[in-house]
Amino acid sequence: MREQLLALKEEVSKALGSVTTEQEVDQLRTRYLGRKGSLTQILRRMKDVPEEERPVLGNLANQIKQEVAGLLDGRRAQIRDEERQRKVREERIDISLPGRRPLRGAYHPLTLVTREIIAVFQGMGFEVVEGPEIDLDFYNFEALNFPRDHPARDMQDTFYVAEDVVLRTHTSNVQIHTMKARTPPFRVLAPGTVYRCDSDTTHSPMFHQVEGFLVDRDVSFAQLKGVLAVFCQALFSPDVPLRFRPSFFPFTEPSAEVDIGCFLCRGAGCRVCSQTGWLEILGAGMIHPEVFKSVGYHRDAYTGFAFGVGIERIAMLKYGIDDIRLFFENDQRFLRQF
Ligand code: DAH
Questions:
Q1: Which of 63, 166, 256, 294 has a Cα-to-Cα distance from 222 of 20 to 30 A?
Q2: Looking at the structure, do residues 80 and 113 belong to the same domain, yes or no?
Q3: Closest CA to 138 of 7, 6, 21, 296
Q4: Is residue 100 part of a domain?
Q5: Total count of domains within the chain
């Protein structure tokens, strides 16, 4: 029995060498010291031992039991300690690593230009109004004095939704909606999306315009010039030269196209202004009496002026962008710059 007790301690000691978890240590404890374990099995045979040897063997058994328990506890503590050290090692947070910057959004350049234009006209008492992008031929053409089969309709390549329904080709349709719904005087600014079947580096099938119009009694072309001068000076520079060229639009008479002096070459002529020294930026004119007639005003009761600005064109000039498609590709590298 003595040898068996000593062998038991040896066995436990050996087994502990290949044990790696606290759970395995506990399994060994059950196997050797548990109620049905090896030590209990050995002590069962105490009754076969001569009586005088029993106290000595009993002492030895207790001693071995304590030593084995000590071995088990020691190994268990050791494993726990190693585990803790491993965790500390692996879960350490390296506070010297640079943080991840949150992505910051930016306003789209067209939003920036639109807001800038709105702010200038609000400063002159204009009210912002929106109109439908899908509209009847009447509002987009007929009431604006584009008769059916009139060649002026070919100036704009129209997307037809149905026989009588179009995607608006310009924001001028808001003139008709507003005039039909209200009685003058009013001054309105109508920014919005417009559509034309056209696509190259300076034309997009979907683009944006701002329409402005003022209707009252005794409105003059001089007032139109004054308002547009304030606009151009605010958007480009206080000393920007302006030029009004006679032009034609069915819904204005007289009509003009307005140029600003090229701010890249200061009038000397460059690639952007096609060597002319001037950049065309908007169309304008005095509202045609036929337009007043078509919205039910007496043709001599009111006078007014109107103008239309292409927002992409302004943004391209202001920011030196040479391809209109960049506005709509949503390339972060492009958009981040604004
Ligand atoms: N609607 C015209 C276009 O899209 C722009 C325009 C020209 C608007 C003259 C106006 C205007 O209000 O008076 O080409």
A1: 294
A2: no
A3: 296
A4: no
A5: 2
Residue among 235, 260, 244 at smallest CA distance from 319: 235
Residue 255 domain flag: yes
What is the domain extent for residue 12?
Answer: 2-90
Q: Examine the domain organization and report whether 77 and 146 are in the same domain.
A: no
pTM of the model: 0.72
| Residue of 211, 213, 249, 290 best suited for mutating to test ligand 1, as the one with most atoms within 8 Å of CB | 249
Asked whether 172 lines ligand 1 (CB < 6 A), one says: yes
Output the CA 186–ligand 1 centroid distance in Å. 18
pLDDT digits (tens, 9 = 90+) for 31-74: 999 999 888 888 888 888 888 988 888 898 889 989 989 989 99
Residue 166 near residue 159, CB atoms below 8 Å: yes
Q: Hey, whose CA ends up nearest to atom 5 of ligand 1?
A: 308
Q: Is residue 99 a part of any domain in this protein?
A: no
- For residue 249, how far is its CA from the centre of ligand 1 (angstroms)? 7
> Within this chain, do residues 79 and 114 fall inside the same structural domain, yes or no?
no
